[in-house]
Amino acid sequence: MVKGRMLQGARAMAEMCALCRPKVISAYPITPQTLIVEELSQIVADGDLEAEFINVEGEHSAASVVLGAAAVGVRVFTCSSSQGLLLMSEVIFNIAGMRLPVVMICVNRSVSAPLNIWNDQQDSIIMRDSGWIQLYAENNEETCDLLLQAHKIAEDHRVMLPAMVCCDGYVLPHAYEIVDLPSQAEVDAFLPPYDPIYKLDIDNPTTMGAFADPEKYMETRYMIQETMKKSLSVIEEVARDFGSSFGRSSYGLFEKYRVDDASTVVVALGSMAGTIKDVVDELRDQGEKVGILRLICYRPFPKEALYEALSAAENIVIMEKDISLGGSGAVATDMRAVFYGREACPRISGFILGLGGRDITVDDIKTTISKAQHQVADADFVGLKEDLELEGING
Amino acid sequence: MVKVEERDKFNDHLLASGHTACPGCGQSLAARLVLRAAGRNVMVVNSTGCLEVFSSKYPESAWEVPWIHSLFENTSAVAAGVEAALKITGQLDRVRVIAQGGDGSTADIGLGAISGMLERGHDVLYICYDNEAYMNTGIQRSGSTPYYARTTTSPPGKVSLGNWRPKKDVPQIALAHGIPYVAVASVGYPMDLDRKVRKALSIRGPKYVQIHVPCPLGWGTDPARTIDFARLAVLTGLYPLYEVENGELRALKIPKKVPVEEYLKEQVRFRHLFGKEDRSKEIAEIQSIADQNIEKFGLIVK
User: What is the reported pLDDT for A248?
Assistant: First the structure.
């Protein structure tokens, strides 16, 4: 382990990507993902990683290139954000249906219009139905740790599904933090070469991507759904292995921070958890029983583990950077489904914060927690600017 | 050199019988000829379309070579990924990559990905089976549909005479990328087709081969006469067969000019040009396309 290097997040992620030894990398530039692929290009150009780096003409092709390479049986990597991920979306679903263990980083960014290059998590949340495992990181080191684990999870023969590691745009890859990266030998010991179950091979011809009529299609969805459920234990197992191999904790499905005796538990994904932890500490000092459960694994959604972790709480306060317009926040919707019809029945409130890079302040978080003590909120927007001319829009 | 008959016996069924193509399908015949020429050491990336659907319904497959289908428009990018993986794992010296699709996936929805693949120099042979419309979805107009042809989305009507534009010239677009080999072939000329596929696969880098394949269902032609129509398209000059290898053009000569009416009149897709109304002006326009091809490619020995 190389201890304590001050690295820009993107550099750390690129180095970790290279340590995982992907054979084919393909990407198309989009802010704020670009720093990562620029760094990776340099690593390949310097001969420090033996890989084909394919600069494509768009994200649809970036995802398609790694799909094709994965079908030949090599480890692959791609990376995108926002509109790029949306352009990929057709291929994203296709990769999962073809059961190819592609790994990518989504540098989370809002979705246009209006054009906005800053962070929220709408882009990856849209992909929640695609059959990809989704892991959300709080900081740069965790993004790197999850990237390494994602390859191992995706390529596990019990899983064979693609995995997306999500990190908050600008907040993480553009920030300098102290990061401990493992050595090549440590990574190699943790992550063996990809051993495909099926691949394109002239000595053993197979047909991949066959079409399925109504007698067959539904079973393919069922199999992915069942694999998703079973992969929860693989994700936990890989996190435990990571902990014992690298001597630092990796939380698996979620991280609980001062949750066990809490009457109010905030649930959030990604980097905003850092600010929320500070607020939790402050409120604890004032005697309030507050905690935060930081969800790392959003797909598969760890329903039973969440029920167990949160059933003693009175209030669950979901803070999320996405909105299903006309509906609710995606995480809140999923969370309500966990408790509906069950014995434990905490009050569940959903709040929308930080869209398009809006700052999430300590005051925002305090206000939100306090609001949830008195009412059940559903998709309440927090931190709106009062000077917006909403009247005109609302008619 | 291995005799053609012996080679054919070995490779004739790499696209096996038993698939569900229509009777008289020009595409299925051409695809079988392509594989026969290519042999077993190929990986085929296939776009969505008739060829994919009639050959790969799970749990059956007509493909006796490694074959992958992903989506409609990304075939060239998937093939680029296959090639990159073969390259980095040292297999590219013994495995060739073929990307193939219909004219809709080639001239229209997949053109960007094809351009990217050609421009980046991947060692991939792209094959377009050109039956001049979206046949798999029910005969809709593509960029490759010829002038005045009836399709379900370019129907003749009170103010229309069918497709209002001449077909897109994708081989010339491919050539503009400066790639080493571009060829136009026809299922009506199987030996020429065989030679062009073999030639293409002997060259490193990106190659583009477009094959004219009549579609009895979409064209409204007799399934028993697929080869006749393929040949007539060539003999009229409407579908010039040529190849450009490192900038040098060679065209397949035709013995004498056959008037375009001979090709058009028995196809339902052109029937509206032969009704009560006088459409000699429109037929003359089509004839002029053929004449220009004959001139441009030197199709007739003077």
Answer: 87
CB contact at 8 A, A314 and A343? no
Cβ-based neighbours of B287, under 8 Å, separated by 6 or more: B259, B260
Mean pLDDT value across residues B256-275: 97
The DSSP letter of residue B166 is: P
The rounded distance, in Å, linking the Cα atoms of B47 and A62 is 17
B4 pLDDT above the threshold of 90: no
Q: Which amino acid is at B289?
A: I
* Closest chain B residue by Cα to residue A52: B84
Quote the percentage of chain A above a pLDDT of 70.
97
> Taking CB atoms and an 8 Å limit, are B82 and A68 in contact across chains?
yes
Give contacts of B64 with chain A, Cβ < 8 Å: 205
Q: Is A99 on the interface with B (CB under 8 A)?
A: no
Q: Which residues pair with A2 in a beta bridge?
A: A181
> What confidence tens digit (pLDDT) does each residue in A30-62 have?
999 999 999 999 999 999 999 999 999 999 999
Domain count, chain B: 1
Q: Output the CATH code of domain A254-394.
A: 3.40.50.920
In B, minimum Cα distance to A99 occurs at B70
> pTM here?
0.96
Six token digits for residue A12: 């750390």
User: Same fold for the domain at A2-246 and the one at A254-394?
Assistant: yes
Within-domain flag for B51: yes
A208 at interface of B, judged by CB pairs closer than 8 A: yes
Q: Give me the domain span that covers residue B109.
A: 4-297
Residue spans of the domains in chain A: they are 2-246, 254-394
CA distance B241 to chain A (A): 30
**Residue B245 burial class via C-beta count within 10 angstroms: exposed 0-12, middle 13-18, buried 19 and up:** middle
Residue type for B299, please? L
Please indicate, yes or no, if residue B11 is contained in any of the structural domains. Answer: yes
**Are the C-beta atoms of residues A199 and A71 closer than 8 Å to each other?**
yes
In terms of residues, how long is chain A? 395
Q: Does A341 touch chain B (CB under 8 A)?
A: no
Q: Give the count of beta carbons closer than 10 Å to the beta carbon of residue B60.
A: 13
User: Looking at residue B152, what DSSP letter applies?
Assistant: T
Q: Please list every residue in chain B whose beta carbon sits closer than 8 Å to the beta carbon of residue A61.
A: 74, 76-77, 80, 112-113, 116
Q: Kindly report the CATH number assigned to the domain that includes residue B205.
A: 3.40.50.970
Q: Which residue of B has its CA nearest to A217?
A: B58
Q: Say whether A67 and B94 touch across the interface (CB within 8 A).
A: no
**Contacts B69 to A, Cβ<8 Å:** 208-211
In CATH terms, A2-246 corresponds, of 3.40.50.970, 2.40.30.10, 3.20.20.450, 3.40.50.10260, to 3.40.50.970
A91 touches chain B (CB under 8 A): yes
Q: Inspect the interface and report whether the beta carbons of A202 and B113 lie closer than 8 Å.
A: no
What is the C-alpha to C-alpha distance for residues B237 and B124, in angstroms, rounded to an integer? 29
Is B302 a domain residue? no
Contacts of residue B73 in chain A, CB cutoff 8 Å? 60
Asked if the structure places residue B206 within a domain, the reply is yes
Complex prediction ipTM? 0.96
**Over the stretch A152-188, which tens digit does the pLDDT of each residue have?**
999 999 999 999 999 999 999 999 999 999 999 999 9
Q: Which residue of A has its CA nearest to B63?
A: A207
Interface residue ranges in chain B relative to chain A, Cβ cutoff 8 Å: 40-43, 45, 52-53, 56-59, 61, 63-71, 73-74, 76-89, 94-95, 112-113, 115-116, 119-120
Three-state DSSP state, A50 = coil
